Target: Methyltransferase-like protein 13
Amino acid sequence: MTPGAATTATTHAYGEASYWDQRYSNDQGAFDWYQKYQSLSPLFDLYLRRHHRLLLVGCGNSALGENMVDDGYQDIVNIDISSVVIEAMQKKYSDKPGLKYVKMDVRDMRSFESRSFDAVIDKGTLDSLMCGQNATENATMMLQEIGRVLKDKGVYILITYGDPSYRLYLLKDVELWTVKIHVIERVEKSPGQKTWEVTSPLPLNEDGNPVSGTLGANPEVHYIYVCTKDDSQRPSQRMHTDEARNEQ
Ligand SMILES: C[S@@+](CC[C@H](N)C(=O)[O-])C[C@H]1O[C@@H](n2cnc3c(N)ncnc32)[C@H](O)[C@@H]1O
Model:
C-alpha cells in the first residue's frame, strides 16, 4: 500500500483496528487512498445507478461518500472497523441523510440482511487485510460476506494496487461472480498522463486473466475489479436450472 507503507511492522498493522484508530486519532483531515471520486465517476456511471443502495466498506475518512451524494447518489452506507473514524464521520455528515456511518467489521456484517445491497465499493480495504496476519483467511471471510450482502446481479467494485496475479485467485475462490478488470493511471506516478481509458475493461483470456502483453511490464496503474454476482453460477442453483430444463 503506498502512503506510509514499507516495513514489516507497519505492513502487519494495516490489518489491525488499533493501528487505524491511532492513525485516525492523529490525522483528522479527509484523505483518499489511491484515487478520488472525480477519476472514478465515469466507471461508476457504467455500473451504478443513482437510486442504488450502496455499501462502502472500510470507508476511512475518504471523501468518496460525500462526493457521490453531492453527485446524486441517494443511499450510501459506510462501514469501518475504526470507531474513531466512524464517530468523526457521523458528526461531520450529520446533515447528509443519504450518508450513514456504522462501525462494523467487513468480515462479519451479520446486521445486514443477505441480498440487501446493489453494489459494494472497496478502495484499499481488501488490500489492508492482505497486509495483515492470516491474510488469505481474512480476505476470504470478507469476500464471502460481500457476496452474501449483494443482490443477484449486484456488483463488487474493488479498487486496489493488487495486480491480477495477486487478486484474481482470491476472487475466483469465492465463485460467486463474473469478473471484469479495468485499470486507471496512478495519479502520483504519472500526473497528467492518460494511457488507459477507465471505462474500457481489459481483454481477458478464457481463464479470466488479461491477454498477455496488454499491460506491459510494471504498469503504473491501479486495478479495478468489477465482480458481478451471478446466482445462476452457484452449483445448487445450476442443479435447479438443469432440473427445470429437463422437466420441459
Ligand atoms: C487503506 S484504508 C482506505 C480508506 C478509504 N476506503 C479510502 O479509499 O481512502 C483501509 C480502511 O479499511 C479499514 N479496515 C481495515 N480492516 C477492516 C475491517 N476488518 N473491517 C472494516 N474496515 C476495515 C481501515 O480502518 C481503513 O479505514
User: Anything to note?
Assistant: The domain at 8-203+218-247 is CATH 3.40.50.150 (Rossmann fold). Residues 4-9 have pLDDT under 50 and may be disordered. The beta strands are 53-57, 75-80, 99-103, 117-123, 150-160, 177-185, 221-229.
